Amino acid sequence: MPGTNLTREEAAERARLLSVSSYEVELDLTTGPDTFASTSVVRFSAQPGSATFADLVAPSVEEIVLNGRALDPAAVYADSRIALDGLETDNELKVRATCAYSHTGEGLHRFVDPVDGGVSLYTQFEVPDARRVFADFEQPDLKATFRFTVTAPQDWELFSNSPTPRPEPLGDGRAVWRFAPTERISTYITALVAGDYHVVRDTYTGPDGTAVPMAVAARKSLAEFLDAEEILDVTKKGFDYFQQLFDLPYPFPKYDQLFVPEYNAGAMENAGCVTFREDYIFRSKVTEAAYERRAETILHELAHMWFGDLVTMEWWNDLWLNESFATYASVRCQVHATRWSGAWTTFANVEKTWAYAQDQLPSTHPIVAEIRDLEDVYVNFDGITYAKGASVLKQLVAYVGDDAFVSGLRTYFRRHAWGNTRLSDLLGALEEASGRDLGAWSKSWLETAGPNTLRPVFTLDDSGAYSSFTITQEAPADYPTLRPHRVAVGLYDRKPEGLVRTHRIELDVDGASTAVPELVGVAQPDLVLLNDDDLSYARIRFDERSVATLVESIGDFAESLPRALSWVATWDMVRNAELPARDYVALVISGAQRESDIGVLQSLQRQVKAAIELYAAPAWREEGAAKWAAFAHSQLLAAHPGSDVQLAWARALAAVARSTEHLDLLSGLLAGTQQIDGLVVDTELRWTLLHRLAATGRAPEGQITAEEERDPTAAGKRHAASARAAIPTVEAKAAAWASMVDSDELPNETLMAVVLGFRQADQRDLLAPYADKYFAKVADLWATRTPHMAQLLVNGLYPSLIVEQRIVDAVDTALAQDPTRVPAPLRRLLLEQRDGTQRTLRGEALDAAARG
Ligand SMILES: [Zn+2]
Predict the structure, then answer these.
(1) Which residues pair with 124 in a beta bridge?
(2) Which of 89, 146, 255, 433 has the fewest Cβ atoms within 10 angstroms?
(3) 301 an active-site residue?
(4) Which of 41, 12, 317, 6 is nearest to 141 (CA)?
(5) Distance from C-alpha of 110 to C-alpha of 104, rounded to nearest angstrom
(6) pLDDT confidence of residue 852
(7) Alpha carbon distance 48, 808 (integer Å)
(8) What is the reported pTM?
(9) Measuring CA to CA, how many Å separate 37 from each of 30, 31, 218?
(10) 65 alpha carbon to ligand 1 midpoint, in Å?
(11) How far does residue 310's CA lie from ligand 1's centre (Å)?
(12) Which residues contact 679 (CB under 8 A, 6 or more apart)?
């Protein structure tokens, strides 16, 4: 029984049989709050006499007509498929159905604003969810033109891939929007956004005078917070940069960016109609790091207009190429065309940390992943697909040279515009441009899994100079590939102006051991940094003297990138039980005050919290948390009034506050009886403070309700639900659990908020009974929830705070069930979580041994 799955073989067979020319999709959004009417007319050619199927996920199907022949829906529609046989050379399929709005962010999501009753609808179709809105052939290589005709309340704003037409009133409060046909695109990047939106319009004018109409929109109740000018400014810089880099004009007739509620991902590259999560509209003060990441997302989606939308992967096994390219191109654009010229530091801090962590999981896979079916794709939007792929692409640019890379890319876009490609098409274009054979490179970097680890090994002569220096390379036992790495080695010494690089050597590291004769005779520096400048994708380790230097002086680096690389490596050491959690906390305390990059500082704050909660010896946890909270408090008081650093420390303190002194401070800030100069206790910070007070038993239900009345927005309601789930009582935990597990009523974003509230590190006793409940329920949750919701629950409710061998054993028992109860994607998630528990067990043991 196929259910809602689709295998690669089925897709390939269908692409062999069919060529789709056009869709005419009519949607009526005025038929009710739960469902809408959908009519899809698909014109396609086929091999005469052949049979295939169309896709549709709908509560009911009223009419199916193939080439004028009425088919009985009861006979041909099952398991989300419409069986089609007796195909002719040219075919017309008409399907009239009643489709359902979703509350899970998949298909056509419907949201009602609690502030003004305004309705927001948006589509999210990646991976296979256009079929929840209209009957189609749901696979990326069956491109077609799409003509949408939509009936909706006449005062709504509508957006789709084509420019919004003038609505035609029907005289009864409704109107019809007839969108012009699109170019030939894939189903997963078609889109519709409709409802009570506030819109800001603008035009991008390129150097050659061509104009692209643009719009930015958000719910009306967020209008006052929508900083459209900044968003449009970043977008225009992206247009300038990408059009020049790709030497190809923007391929679509307009560019709309829509900030939509209850959105699962960061954003989605629908052709000319990009959707973003609403958290990117800042209704309270955020740090510069949030603006930087938003710009990264804006530029990532814009890059997809060429790479992904104009030229599209044939099947989901090349999802990585799509995502890696957009990630790489976005950071490159940030560095060259925006105020975030240090974006490679953020890339090292965020993307590479993600990639190294993902690459050490038992589920790690080659960048070029085997994607057998849709279920494989759902769980593959991971750190390999986005972050390792982007790291390796960056390295490929260094390998073939920037000029050859750009020239190959331009050829690739021209050659394959409006078509579908495989990895070999891009590599072929790069080989032509560079004259280099990329076969070996592809084999070692794209077709094998697991990270390499580089270590310095040396001897010293009597004068303290190196008498030998080698770089060793290791690989995990399960993924033993050693690779060629182009790396820089940096030698750093303490100077009055800080920790300064005195030598830089660039070389090729290959095999298990690579000698570095250039360093023989050079005096041992205070610190040796392998993979300096972050040229390669490799975990690094330090010698003893370098570790000592870091502990005393990590804050003294004159540049942000080597400091970030050192932070990334030391966090990786904590996660691998090579550095005790308490030493890491001490390291961060020594260096954090001089960390100049706000994004890096905020990562460190999160990592220290995780180090204490997950990797510290249980006997030291309280002490560690108290030490960290005291430090956060001191930094909060010392920070420049009104600065990002001040806000970051206020949040960090609120995340861990436990003592009466600190909780009194949170209460006082919330009540307004205490102030810190320059710290504005705005809406979001109020919820952060209240959440912690609720989690520590200091904010009763009544106080949460009062705050909800003060902030009666959708975000306020989610924060309140999260705070209620955090209350440290048996009853509150039971209620939260029931709302998540026994019911499927919570919309996606609220479910996420309750998961986060439920999981409190200092409530292990209250949470312990839920470990068994989790394992009793996990297979049912997987079987009965949509892919996104199931994944959220399986990962979010896993008892990661119960650091005991019995949890590892419980996973093993769960995995030993009938395989139909634990299909491959669920197995993958459970194995990843099990690995997390084993890491925390090892980390705790190391930290316990380090005591004293
Ligand atoms: Zn993307």
Answers:
(1) 107
(2) 89
(3) yes
(4) 12
(5) 9
(6) 57
(7) 55
(8) 0.95
(9) 8, 7, 25
(10) 37
(11) 14
(12) 636, 641, 642, 646, 647, 650, 669, 685
How far does residue 41's CA lie from ligand 1's centre (Å)? 29
Report how far ligand 1's centroid is from the alpha carbon of 765 (Å): 40
Tens digit of pLDDT for each residue in 702-730? Answer: 999 999 999 999 999 999 999 999 999 99
Buried b (16+ CB within 10 A) or exposed e, 172-194: eebbbbebeebbbbbbbbbbbbb
- Give me the long-range contacts of 383-386 (CB less than 8 A, separation at least 24): 383/354, 383/355, 383/357, 383/358, 383/359, 384/320, 384/355, 384/358, 384/359, 384/449, 385/319, 385/320, 385/323, 385/324, 386/320, 386/323, 386/324, 386/327, 386/351, 386/354
Asked if the model's pLDDT at residue 376 lies above 90, the reply is: no
Distance 374 CA to ligand 1 centre (A): 17
Cα 383 to averaged position of ligand 1 atoms, centre (Å) = 12
Give CA–CA dist 20/44, Å, rounded: 4
Closest to 217 measured CA to CA, from 206, 237, 202, 234: 202
Among 246, 247, 237, CA closest to 337:
237
Bond preceding residue 127 cis, omega within 30 of 0? yes
The predicted-structure confidence for 180-202, as pLDDT tens digits, reads as follows 999 999 999 999 999 999 999 99
Q: How far is CA 711 from the centre of its chain?
A: 28
pLDDT higher than threshold 50 for residue 1: no
**How many whole angstroms from 326 Cα to the centroid of ligand 1?**
6
- For the chain, domains (ranges, CATH) are 8-222+251-275 (2.60.40.1730)
* pLDDT tier, 152 (very low <50, low <70, confident <90, very high otherwise): very high
Per-residue pLDDT of 302-337, as tens digits, reads 999 999 999 999 999 999 999 999 999 999 999 999
List C-alpha distances in Å: 195 to 44, 146, 167, 300, 619: 32, 21, 13, 26, 54
Of the residues 138, 292, 301, 684, only one is catalytic, namely: 301
The pLDDT score that the predictor gives to residue 370 is 85
* Dist CA 777 CA 770 (whole Å): 10
Q: Which residue has the tokens 């279920």?
A: 375
